[in-house]
Amino acid sequence: MKIAIIGTGYVGLTTAVVLSYLNHDVAAVDKDESKLTLLHEGKSPIHEPGIQNLLDEVWHTIRFTPSVAEVVPEAELILIAVGTPPKKSGEADTRHVEQAAREVAQVCLPDRHYTLVVKSTVPIGTNQRVVEVVEDVFSARGIRGNISVASNPEFLQEGLALQGAFYPDRIVVGANSDEAIDTLRRLYQPILEQTFDPPSEFPRPPSYHLPPMMTTDPNSAEMIKYAANTFLALKISFINEIAGLCEEVDADVTEVARGIGLDARIGQQFLRAGLGWGGSCYPKDTAALLGVAAQSGYKMPITEAARTVNFRQRERIVEKLRGTLGTLKGKSIGILGLAFKPNTDDVREAPALDIIRELLAEGAIVRAHDPIAIPNAQAALPGKDDTIPELQFTEDVYELSYDADALVLVTEWDFYHKLELRRLAKQMKTPILIDGRNVYSPEEARTAGFHYIGVGRI
Ligand code: UDX
Questions:
Q1: How far is the CA of 187 from the centre of ligand 1 (A)?
Q2: CB proximity list for 167: less than 8 A, separation 6 or greater
Q3: Which of 1, 98, 318, 396 has the smallest C-beta neighbourhood within 10 Å, fewest atoms?
Q4: Is 364 a domain residue?
Q5: Is the shortest distance between the CB of 271 and ligand 1 below 6 Å?
Q6: What CATH number is associated with residue 432?
């Protein structure tokens, strides 16, 4: 199938590479020249496990271009995967989605049928708005164009994007037209029937079952995306709230999570207590959902509480530091991990950034490490070009621990599991380890010489 994808961010590029691997004829449009330059050289602008290798394989088949007009007229299906950044009010800004729809409607041919699919995460009612935008352009052009609009929310998890794209739990399509549903069913047929040869890096999981394609109306599809993310966000916040109480009553939240997760109705996943969620989705999507609710005067106390608990986790970690060190002024604190989660260089809404800002505000000296996210963190924090002596970044964890008053593990990179704890503890001024993700066993850390403090653990 001939496809045009508008936007080459995490969602757009992953989709482009996977659909091309599945033998669709893919063109990817982006206005960002720096991204296009990289893509023209065959380099992925995003860091995502496996994406560069897969891009190497399919690169010669994908056309990367800044021009909608160059690829849309010939396409059968157009996917919009542009950003929907938060407005000041928290609501998602759909300007780029509407602009993309406008550009598509301006160049599509009057005698052809197109399916226009919104993959970006958008407020409820956006698909309907896209229909209106398209119709307005058609009437301005004086044509009776033929575009079916559909919602196809994306459930991509950073760090696991390709695995999730080849082996999704479900595909959700919201459309009022049978033609659009049929086109999307043909698009996803190799995934729905698992007829493709898996890439060597992404073998089919042995227990994987064929995914359902759920069809519904566009508003419900849009709501599914927000409800799914908000539910996962509140599941994490729930276990973090329990973790705080575990600390008060000498219980171990990792044991509690295991115990409740064995109930099939609850499930083991997303019950890891710690510093809570960051990233480009949960903070933004929970705020956007509250924004949608506020427009109708509807209250969502559970969603509000999930956010409050989440951001309190960051403050609680700094409180733990104060609790052990007294004043933080002049204290040297090592931060392990800057990315919002492992296997990505993404620092959007990362807990590390808030913690570092707070430590600096209290006069601490911060040295921070991350396997790959240092450049992005430098750009987001003061201290770029080493202009702030109180904030240093280092690629050497052992150097960071030298003479430090405390270490705070913020991101659970595999790399940190393998550190020589004894060596780290020995080098520090005071061997305090605040494990913000419960990565280490308390016994192991204490045996290595640390004063160990986890989240919700004895
Ligand atoms: C999420 C959704 O999983 C995905 O379906 C949606 O499309 C986009 O938002 P992502 O933000 O990439 O994906 O990451 P995810 O793996 O869900 O983790 C989000 C945050 O929650 C991370 O900061 C992670 O550290 C944290 N988390 C996750 C926990 O604190 N505890 C857990 O048990 C799980």
A1: 27
A2: 202, 204, 205, 208, 211
A3: 396
A4: yes
A5: yes
A6: 3.40.50.720
Based on the domain organization, do 27 and 147 belong to the same domain? Answer: yes
Residues 203, 352, single domain; the answer is no
Confidence of residue 395 (pLDDT cuts 50, 70, 90): very high
Mark whether 102 and 210 lie in a shared domain: yes
For residue 172, what is the enclosing H or E element?
strand 171-175
Residue 288 falls inside a structural domain: no
Does 123 fall in a domain?
Answer: yes
First to last CA, the chain: 57
Choosing from 192, 216, 240, the residue where a domain stops is: 216
Its domain, for residue 15, covers: 2-216
Assess whether the C-beta atom of 10 lies below 6 angstroms from ligand 1: no
**Structure confidence by residue, pLDDT tens digits, 53-71:** 999 999 999 999 999 999 9
Dihedral sign, Cα of residue 419, residue 422, residue 425, residue 427? negative
CA distance 14 to 353: 27
Last residue of a domain, one of 216, 241, 263: 216
Closest ligand 1 atom to 272 CA: 33
CA 431 from centroid of its chain's CA atoms: 33
**Which of 119, 122, 172, 236 should be mutated for ligand 1, with most atoms under 8 A from CB?**
236
Q: Is 341 in the pocket of ligand 1 (CB under 6 A)?
A: yes
40 part of a folded domain: yes
Q: Is the CB of 413 under 6 A from ligand 1?
A: no
